[in-house]
Write a structure and sequence with these properties.
The complex is a heterodimer of chains A (318) and B (302).
Chain A: H1 2-29, H2 34-38, H3 45-55, H4 61-73, H5 87-122, H6 127-141, H7 144-158, H8 180-213, H9 216-223, H10 228-256, H11 258-264, H12 270-279, H13 283-311, H14 313-317
Chain B: H1 2-18, H2 27-36, H3 39-56, H4 58-61, H5 94-130, H6 132-146, H7 150-161, H8 165-192, H9 195-202, H10 207-243, H11 255-262, H12 270-298
Helix pairs in contact in B: 2-12, 3-5, 3-12, 5-6, 5-8, 5-10, 5-12, 6-8, 7-8, 8-10, 9-10, 10-11, 10-12, 11-12
Classes of the chains: A mainly alpha (318), B mainly alpha (302).
């Protein structure tokens, strides 16, 4: 067990390194001189010189990367061109707001999606299976940014029961989940965000459960005289590792993919920060946000793999 | 008459002997047989076909010029004058824009998938067939791109390169190469371990011959099915990029871009503003269901 954990954690290091190389090269993907993309357009010759030396643009690329990596590791992501604030503060603040969304969207989407998939997989071919499979296709095919707009049209424009956009009058610093005047701003974004994971998760859970049910050991359990409920429990437990892998991917989607939903609802999270950075051509913020989000994703995958090996000992030996 | 029958008889039974005792259908025959008996897939395939045809024939069937603006006719509801689906924020006919928008959106949905299937497929077959260090090098590089959520990677690349239709397609292609490569690699590795590859090698076949005649046939199925399932994802992502201002630039009509510009007007003509999303949604559902049907018919498991 300890060996597996160590191996898996060591494996995450080259991945994290590769991710940082990709994020570093984003500045060089931008058209024009990389110096121009990190500098405000009205910079004086003096600031240009200072920045040039600070970023190491006068040195060869590998050295530049190491300098950049060193700064990133100490939490220095550079300055935002648009707001002149440290990127690190901007990103952490926004990430907290995205976390608030995820805090609600993750349990809702995972429990509904898993329950739907488990039900459908336990009765393959029956009406409940058809209903779930049909609904799941809608979830998977849904452009969530459009769903967000439709929900705003229905609940904010026509019925006027929920606010259309934003995070409430008190703003992100004073946001209290337990206060309804604040919490009602969460409803539409959370519902919108949950739809795609519900669709994907119910599809995978259904497939995993149906597959496990066809395995020989289920026949053995029945032959032993176990009740149908006890058999189902065994089936669900054996399908869990596959489902958990997809849950991990979907958690990453909820963090990274929230960019469209947050833009629709102008929710001041990491996705909205990213979309603002794109409009302002604020490359340091773009780079910092993507680096942070993908590192969170790498960590999530690591945790999911370790949890999987807890549930299914076969993975540890494999 | 009975004579001729008697003469015919042995010939007939001779024919039956030549054929196997029970009629065995070829793989493609059974795939088409299953497809023919799957009305749902046939229906949605017809839907996809008509959407594609409508987009291709847009100049012939569209009632207006997609760029003709009208100051008095801005943001009008369904059925205003000759505009069956209303007009947008510059007074352009919505039906026309939706038809023309289909061209751009479908193009951005299909091209990245095709290019990524070719590149990713080749890399995957290479990694799977050669194995060893080549496999490690290719697949570990792919793992790095796997470490990004797909939307985020597309946004990052398109955002850094500065948007535009070509950059958007390039970003999507890069996003789809790693999963495609993984599908092809898994299929190739599985085939490579089978005995007939060993037999081919023993009989002196070169690597390219083995890949051409023995590997590709077994890899194309999974790659094709996976690619067909990516088309819907690609349409959603491409429209998403345009929605964020990273894809198609105005005034070119694109469903995602239209959705984004009309978003300001949901208080004026809510139904008109929701239309481009309906187009994306319907296209994406149809593509998904056709892909599911093909997967079932071709009996591909991934």
């Amino acid at each position: 067990m300890g060996g597996y954990i160590l191996r898996r954690m060591l494996y995450a290091i080259p991945i994290a390194f590769g991710v940082s190389v990709v994020c570093f090269s984003l500045v060089y993907l931008a058209p024009g001189d990389p110096l121009q993309t990190v500098l405000p357009p009205d910079a004086t010759a003096e600031t240009i010189e200072i920045v040039k030396r600070a970023y190491g643009f006068d040195k060869p690329l590998p050295v530049q990367f190491l300098i950049w990596l060193g700064r990133v590791l100490t939490g220095d992501f550079g300055m935002s061109i648009a707001t002149k604030r440290p990127v690190f503060l901007e990103v952490t603040g926004a990430l907290a707001n995205t976390g608030t969304l995820a805090l609600f969207a993750v349990p809702i989407a995972f429990s509904i999606g898993y329950a739907m998939g488990a039900l459908a997989g336990s009765f393959p071919g029956r009406w409940i299976d058809r209903v779930v499979t049909g609904t799941a296709v809608f979830g998977v095919s849904l452009p969530n940014y459009w769903l967000g707009i439709v929900l705003v049209i229905v609940f904010a424009v026509e019925w006027m029961v929920l606010p259309a956009t934003g995070m409430g009058p008190s703003g992100s610093d004073e946001f209290r989940i337990l206060r309804w005047s604040d919490a009602k701003f969460l409803v539409l974004p959370v519902v919108t965000l949950s739809m795609i994971p519900i669709g994907i998760l119910s599809r995978t859970t259904r497939a995993a459960v149906a597959e496990v049910r066809n395995q020989d050991f289920v026949q053995t359990l029945r032959a032993k005289g176990l009740s149908e409920w006890a058999v189902t429990r065994h089936v669900l437990k054996n399908s869990l590792p596959q489902v958990m892998a997809v849950m991990g991917l979907q958690f990453g989607y909820l963090l990274g993919g929230s960019i469209l939903v947050e833009t629709v609802f102008t929710w001041p999270g990491s996705g909205f920060l990213l979309s603002k950075a794109i409009i302002n051509r604020d490359v340091p913020v773009l780079q910092g946000t993507i680096l942070t989000l993908s590192m969170v994703f790498v960590a999530t995958n690591l945790i999911v793999d370790l949890l999987q090996s807890l549930v299914d000992p076969r993975i540890r030996r494999g | 008459m009975p004579d001729t029958l008697a003469i015919d008889e042995p010939l007939g039974s001779f024919d039956e002997q030549a054929a196997p005792a029970t009629r065995v259908r070829g793989y493609w025959q059974s795939v088409f047989y299953r497809l023919r008996h799957d009305p749902v897939t046939l229906f949605f395939a017809a839907m996809v076909l008509s959407i594609v045809l409508a987009a291709i024939c847009a100049p012939l069937i569209a009632p207006f010029d997609p760029y003709r603006e009208s100051i008095v006719g801005r943001l009008k509801p369904f059925g205003w004058r000759d505009h069956a689906l209303g007009t947008d924020e510059l007074g352009r006919d919505m039906l026309t824009r939706l038809l023309y928008g289909g061209r751009v959106s479908l193009l951005m949905g299909v091209v990245p998938v095709v290019v990524a299937s070719l590149i990713g497929g080749m890399l995957g077959v290479l990694a799977g067939f050669v194995g060893g260090r080549v496999n490690t090098a290719i697949m570990r590089t792919m793992d790095v791109f796997y470490a990004f959520p797909s939307v985020l990677l597309a946004v990052a690349i398109a955002g850094a390169m500065g948007g535009g239709m070509v950059n958007g397609m390039l970003a999507l292609t890069l996003v789809f190469i790693p999963p495609m490569c993984r599908v092809a690699e898994t299929a190739t590795t599985q085939v490579r371990a089978l005995d007939f590859i060993e037999a081919a090698r023993a009989s002196g076949a070169g690597a390219l011959t083995i890949i051409r005649y023995h590997v590709l046939g077994n890899v194309l199925g999974p790659v094709f099915i996976y690619a067909s399932s990516l088309v819907s994802v690609s349409i959603l992502l491409a429209s998403g990029l345009s929605f964020l201002g990273l894809g198609v630039r105005p005034p070119l009509p694109d469903w995602g871009l239209m959705l984004s510009t009309l978003r300001q007007s949901i208080y004026v003509v809510p139904l008109v503003c929701a239309l481009p999303g309906v187009a994306i949604f319907i296209t994406s559902i149809c593509c998904n269901l056709v892909s599911d049907g093909l997967r079932a018919a071709m009996d591909v498991r991934m």
